[in-house]
Fold each of these.
Amino acid sequence: MNYNLPDWAEKVRAGDIRAISRAITAIENHSPESEELLQRIFPATGKAYLTGITGAPGTGKSTLVDRLATYHRQRHEPVGVIAVDPTSPYTGGAILGDRIRMQGHSSDDGIFIRSMATRGFLGGLARATAEVALLLDAAGKRQVLIETVGVGQDEIDIVRLADCVIVVLVPGLGDDIQNMKAGLMEIGDIFVLNKADREGADRLEEQLHAMLSLVMPRDGWHPPVIRTVATENSGVRELGETVEKFRKHFLTSGGREKKHIEHWSKRLVEMLESRLLEKVLGGKTGETKLRELATAVAQRKKDPFSAVSEILKDSGLED
Ligand SMILES: Nc1nc2c(ncn2[C@@H]2O[C@H](COP(=O)(O)OP(=O)(O)O)[C@@H](O)[C@H]2O)c(=O)[nH]1
Ligand SMILES: [Mg+2]
């Protein structure tokens, strides 16, 4: 496969599976061609609705994502799934290239599923996930579901990029939602009480409502609690409808646009940082130079402020 960038971008936009898979690999490797490709497809983005599904391992996120995907497919909406969790069991379907399809969706071309490794991406996992979401957006996936384990800053950064954040909780997981990161409580737009068939569901729901009553509503939205039994498909329809309700609410309140502007402010700073770093410290000589300066500072032969000034002078950014 050796197509030129315009062709490649065109194929991505047409939903060509191989072109998308190859683009995702390029994004994961943070290769220069991925940037050029994203630049080309960017005008075609902005139409997808991103839903982040987060929660502790084993709470049923993958099962819910699978059910939600079915819900959207029944409404003829193209679906993209990004699983930022290597343990997600999206196997059993046909594997074409590096595409892994969910069982039950294997004959459906309207759904694209991709698992991503969780660590070690240049420029960070959140960057890679955001770019893959753009790609699926350009490829016409109107609903993009992002599954991520709700721990760590990376994961929180990922769900922040979603238009709607679903936090999944289950009864009996240590029982105390106090264990849950306060951060998650704040970013949840919808709370799902999954495994509602289990003992303790009522108590957890009470606790949740008590905690949520302390959270300030954002733009007039009070995060609801939806009970589901994902394995039995129970409550999934209500969840799908609630996501839609939230979408409409946030669109009219201007909350979505605000969120997108915040997202892009952050992204632009990150991109600027990495470009500037590349400019002043890029390549082999940059690495050597950095090492030399760090050694000099560690040995107190130079102070760190002068070292930074020196780097900036060398790159012509300061005189
Ligand atoms: N009893 C019960 N089990 C469920 C429910 N939802 C998921 N599970 C099971 O919980 C386990 C973990 O589900 P999975 O979707 O992989 O969770 P994840 O780690 O959050 O993605 C699997 O064995 C599921 O079949 C539910 O609503 N009730
Ligand atoms: Mg999973």
Note: The longest strand covers residues 49-55.
Amino acid sequence: MSRPDYAEKIPNNVGLAEDRRLQRALESWQPDFLSWWETMGPTLPTQDVYLRTAIDVRGEGWAQFGHVPMIDYRWGIFLADKNPDRRIAFGAHKGEPAWQKVPGEYRAELQRLIVIQGDTEPASVEQQRNLGATAPSLYDLRNLFQVNVEEGRHLWAMVYLLHAYFGREGREEAEELLHRNSGSADSPRILGAFNEETPDWLSFYMFTYFTDRDGKYQLGTLKESAFDPLSRTCEFMLKEEAHHMMVGTTGVDRVVERTAQVMVENDTDEVAALGAIPLDIIQKYLNFHYSVSLDLFGGETSTNVANYYTAGLKGRWLEERRKDDHQLTNDSIMVDALVEGEIAQHEVMALTGLNTDLRREYIADCSGGVKRWNRILEEAGLAQRLYLPHVAFNRKVGAFAAIEAAPSGEKLTASEWDARKGQWLPTATDKTFVRSLMQPVYERGKIAAWVAPPRNGINGQPFDYDYVHLA
Ligand SMILES: [Fe+2]
Ligand SMILES: [Fe+2]
């Protein structure tokens, strides 16, 4: 038997060729991964797709582009370059050298954090598996598949950490990552938003804008981790996430742009009959995806997260740019709360309020999207605007899970909510309408009528390009 070439089979910069034990572990996991991809991955049969493949972590040459059959995509393992002098930036171990091995006292917590992150990666592939059947253009179809293969690679990244650092338990967890499935009744994915379906392309754009962006913030906190291999893994994943954010941001841009165009041309808000998506439906989808994504940040206060921070397991977003002592033992923060049953805030220790800190960074980032979509409306000469709903709106996790609130932040009784929620969240009729627009367009250079074409193609290629060859 010839010795497989590991750089070829599993592209990596972790010295896989020299590590027999790790090779064996990954080799026994790989067939399960491939059969998961075939049964739970994209359903649309394709010959090949114009994909970006990570081949290195440095500079401009970190990825190559080319037409590849998805099953032959080279899911690699890449960690950002090691800084041998890296020191822990926060918590009780601040100033000590970063850890190259898992400290026994934090083993269970680190493994849990990696499993939770790892679980979201294949989940989104499962949620999006049927979207190929209704793609608005070959360009969009290619972007969907790019996101899918990279989420697959992110799963590899987490499985690498489990295999390399967590022994038999890590290998068992790696198997479980393939056995849980999005929306499954008996073994669902760990986090709620990853069990929601992504049934249409408006949902896909909203998901990649709002829910993938949650991923960006979670990875940002893990990138700060004292456990150096986790930090370096997440740093490189963030590089790929930038493309996922772009798909969401420009996807919603293009829906809003097309809607605005049809509104102006016909001087009406009622664009449904004209084949575009009415602004109020776009707002409802936004409300839904934003509110379920806010839930992903957990409760406003958490002693677990305080402990993770103090231990050095996960930091804050852009930890090193914060101008404080990076230990936070004497600081406080205002967090959302129900105070005597009313929507309000109260003061807690900064350490226990870290989920709130991260959620606020995320919210500020999300408002950037709303600004750009409103600029599109403004430039079209329209008075309507999109907005982010209040944090208390449609929450299932945290202080406001117990109450109902309008997008304005007005508290509602249960019966008021039931009577009015259809104004704010997609109804069955809205969803059916959006799905009715989702007719596939597979002809090169053509696009569906409900979305504007992109300004730029991928990797310098034009929009009119054979991004995907269908089978
Ligand atoms: Fe990811
Ligand atoms: Fe992503």
Note: The first strand starts at residue 46 and ends at 54.
